[in-house]
Amino acid sequence: MAEHIRHVALTDERMPALASLFSRVFKRPFDPEDLRHKYDTSFLGIGGLARMAVDGDQPIASTGILPQRFTSNNQQLLGAQVCDLAALPEVRGTGLHDRLLAEALNIARERGVDFFFTLPNDQAHRALDRHGFSWLPRMRGFKIPVATVPLGRLARRIPLLHRLHLSIASKILNQSRVSDGIRNSHAANGALCVDYSRSYLHSKRRRPSAVINAGGAAAWVAADSALEIGDLDSTGIDDLAPALGTLMRMARNIGCSSLLFQCTVKTKLERALSHQFTGFDSWPVGVLRCRPDVTVEDLRLNFGDLDTF
Ligand SMILES: CC(C)(COP(=O)(O)OP(=O)(O)OC[C@H]1O[C@@H](n2cnc3c(N)ncnc32)[C@H](O)[C@@H]1OP(=O)(O)O)[C@@H](O)C(=O)NCCC(=O)NCCS
């Protein structure tokens, strides 16, 4: 590695640098405060796993590692999502990012991470292949249109509408909130799934979100241009229609032009949705175990578990 290039931990004070790196790589603005919130996993007692490469004081590449507590048959495990892989175009294809990723994975293993998971795009997929990730079936997405004034979509381009949409969404979701917690819908089956502690749910409040009662089923939702369904506990219900009715009404009132689900395939929710709607192939799911006894094949993810939710 060239002497002027250093690898550093992504601490709070480096979030403006990360935001400027992301703006150049992903070609849209990023808010340092939002990134600070996203990378704040101090409630787990573990943080600072993400790494950045800097040339002098200029950020040139990053690797996000976001730890999350998981349960599997009453056993506690520490999983970590690998995300936000980014390198400036001028340093790509040089192996610089590859070394940063290798170092970040090693540090996370040393700090007690039991397994990694990732939902990458094609470019990151290739980078992760080189580090031994194996691939589970892709997530299955369902986008169900909602007839409304598409305030959430318009708000993406017009700051004034953005503030209006945020305030409408926060008000409606706060009025509908029934709890600060929800049990992961996969936990009852003994699957490897995220432990939805209250502090975890609290840490995800980067957008207006709430746990609501959707026609008798607990639903964790967040409002953006779509009403995104973080999890829907449909375990005890046979008919999704009342839940979907409530979610549609809420989306209409908030100005979200669709309901958006992202499901692990062959789960009860995915099966129920695919009976009624045409889904689409969504992100691939990569896994890498750090201990031989972790059954990564049992991983069941919800939309809410992802860094983008
Ligand atoms: C994803 C991303 C960070 C990967 O960075 P990268 O530079 O392309 O990847 P690496 O650092 O792993 O470089 C590896 C490539 O350099 C080559 N290379 C050259 N010299 C090398 C060296 N000394 N050591 C290792 N690889 C070397 C490798 O052969 C490999 O090429 P290949 O993919 O054709 O086999 C980068 O493509 C990126 O920023 N993309 C845009 C942002 C994005 O979409 N991120 C994903 C969000 S999920």
Write a structural description.
By secondary structure, this protein is of the alpha+beta class. The protein contains 9 helices and 15 strands. It has helices at 15-26, 32-38, 96-110, 122-129, 151-155, 159-176, 198-203, 241-254, 268-276, and strands spanning 5-9, 51-55, 58-72, 75-87, 115-118, 134-136, 140-145, 177-179, 193-194, 209-214, 217-223, 227-232, 258-263, 280-281, 285-289. Strands 1, 2, 3, 4, 5, 6, 9 and 15 form an 8-stranded mixed beta sheet that branches. The mean pLDDT is 94. Coenzyme A binds next to strand 4, helix 3 and helix 4.
CATH level 1 name of the largest domain: Alpha Beta
CATH architecture of the largest domain: 3-Layer(aba) Sandwich
Stretches with pLDDT under 50, minimum 5 residues: none
> What share of residues is helical?
25-40%
Helices and strands: which structural class? alpha+beta
Element order, helices and strands?
Answer: EHHEEEHEHEEHHEEHEEEHEHEE
Return the average pLDDT rounded to an integer: 94
Bound ions, cofactors and other small molecules, one mention each: coenzyme A
Q: Could you tell me the CATH topology label of the largest domain.
A: Aminopeptidase
Strand tally: 15
Protein topology:
Layout: E1 5-9, H1 15-26, H2 32-38, E2 51-55, E3 58-72, E4 75-87, H3 96-110, E5 115-118, H4 122-129, E6 134-136, E7 140-145, H5 151-155, H6 159-176, E8 177-179, E9 193-194, H7 198-203, E10 209-214, E11 217-223, E12 227-232, H8 241-254, E13 258-263, H9 268-276, E14 280-281, E15 285-289
Bound molecules: coenzyme A.
Coenzyme A binds next to strand 4, helix 3 and helix 4.
